[in-house]
Design a protein that fits this description.
The protein starts with a strand and ends in a 7-residue tail after the last helix. It has two domains: 115 residues, 2,3-Dihydroxybiphenyl 1,2-Dioxygenase, domain 1, CATH 3.10.180.10; 158 residues, 2,3-Dihydroxybiphenyl 1,2-Dioxygenase, domain 1 (Roll). Helix content is 20%, strand content 40%. The longest helix has 13 residues. The strands form two sheets. A nine-stranded mixed sheet has the order 14-15-16-13-9-12-11-10-17, with helices on one face. Strands 2-3-4-1-5-8-7-6 form an eight-stranded mixed sheet, covered by helices on one side. By secondary structure, it is of the alpha/beta class.
C-alpha cells in the first residue's frame, strides 16, 4: 500500500512574524489565507496552506507535513507508529483546513504531521508581486544518524531512497546524505548528516526562465542568492537558494528527475563540487557553506 502521496507543507517559527509574512508574499509569491493568534497560513494554490509561519523567539522548523494517500493509509501509518513505540504528540488536527491529522516526533527529534484530506478551497489564481511557485516541493533536514533516520522513514512511512551521497573515510565510505521519494518526484524529503534541524525547504517553479526572473526579483529587493543557479547531480534539478528574514533557507527548483520504477533504490554520489553542481560554479557563499552545507569539508 502506498502510504504517502506527496509532501504537504512546512511550518516555520520566526522571531519577526510580519517580516516573514512579507517575504512569503512579496518574494515567494504566496497568498495569505488566514491568521490564528501568532500563526499565519499561506498558500500558492488551491490548498488551504503550503506554508505556516509561527511567531517565536527564534527561527526554527516547527514541523513538516505529509499527505496520506487515503484514510486507510492514514490508519496504517498510525498503527505502524504505535507498533514502533513512536511518541505521538497529537491524534487530531492542530491547524485549520485538515480533515484528519496526527503529529509525532521522529527518533531524530523532528516533529512530523501526517494528514488525510486538506481543504482545497482557495482560488486557483491570484495576483502577486512575488514569483509564485507551482507547489511546495520538499524539505531537507539534518539528522545525527543517516542510516537510522533513513530506515525509519522507509519502514514506517514507505519512502524510497532515490540517491545518496558519501565521503571517503577510514579506508571506506560513509553516507552523508540521502534523498527519498514518496511519488515520482526524485525527492520529497532529504536527510543530511548533522545536528537535527532544518537545512532548507524548496519550492518548484515552472522552468529555468522562472529562476532567472526570481534572481532579478531578489536583486531588486536587496536579497542575494546564497548559491546558484546550477544543476544538482542527485535529482538533476536546477536550483537557487536564498535566505528569508529569519535566516531560513528557501530553494527554488525546476526540472527535477522523476522516477516511476519503485524498485529503483538509488545511486551513490561522492561528495565533491561537481556532484553538488554538475555545471561547476558558482560556489555557495561562505556563510551558506558554514551554516547550511555542513555535511563534510568540501574539497
Amino acid at each position: 500500500m502506498k502510504l504517502i502521496s506527496q509532501m504537504g507543507h512546512v511550518a516555520l517559527r520566526t522571531p519577526d512574524l510580519e517580516a516573514s509574512v512579507r517575504h512569503a508574499i512579496d518574494i515567494l509569491g504566496l497568498r495569505e489565507v488566514e491568521r490564528s493568534g501568532g500563526t499565519v497560513f499561506l498558500t500558492c494554490g488551491r490548498n488551504h496552506h503550503d506554508l505556516q509561519l509561527i511567531a517565536s523567539d527564534q527561527a526554527a522548523v516547527d514541523h513538516f507535513s505529509l499527505e496520506a494517500t487515503s484514510d486507510s493509509a492514514f490508519d496504517e501509518i498510525l498503527a505502524r507508529l504505535e507498533r514502533e513505540g513512536v511518541r505521538i504528540a497529537a491524534k487530531t488536527p492542530q491547524e485549520p483546513g485538515l480533515s484528519r491529522a496526527l503529529r509525532f516526533v521522529t527518533p531524530d527529534g523532528h516533529t512530523v504531521e501526517v494528514y488525510a484530506g486538506m481543504a482545497k478551497d482557495q482560488p486557483a489564481t491570484y495576483n502577486t508581486v512575488g514569483i509564485r511557485p507551482r507547489k511546495f516541493a520538499h524539505t531537507t533536514i539534518a539528522v545525527p544518524d543517516i542510516a537510522a533516520s533513513e530506515n525509519f522513514f522507509c519502514k514506517v512511512l514507505g519512502f524510497i531512497p532515490s540517491d545518496r551521497m558519501y565521503v571517503r573515510a577510514d579506508g571506506g565510505t560513509k553516507d552523508v546524505a540521502v534523498w527519498m521519494r514518496c511519488n515520482p518526484d526524485h525527492h520529497g524529503l532529504a536527510l543530511i548528516a548533522g545536528a537535527a534541524g532544518l537545512r532548507h525547504c524548496a519550492w518548484e517553479l515552472e522552468n529555468f526562465s522562472y529562476l532567472a526572473v526570481l534572481g532579478d526579483h531578489l536583486a531588486s529587493n536587496g536579497i542575494k542568492l546564497e548559491w546558484g543557479p546550477g544543476r544538482h547531480g542527485p535529482g538533476n534539478n536546477l536550483y537557487t537558494y536564498h535566505r528569508d528574514p529569519a535566516g531560513n533557507v528557501h530553494e527554488h527548483m525546476a526540472d527535477i528527475e522523476r522516477i516511476y520504477d519503485d524498485s529503483f533504490l538509488g545511486r551513490s554520489w561522492e561528495l565533491k563540487p561537481e556532484t553538488l553542481n554538475l555545471w561547476g560554479g558558482p560556489e555557495p557563499s561562505a556563510e551558506y557553506r558554514s551554516r547550511y552545507l555542513r555535511v563534510a569539508a568540501l574539497p
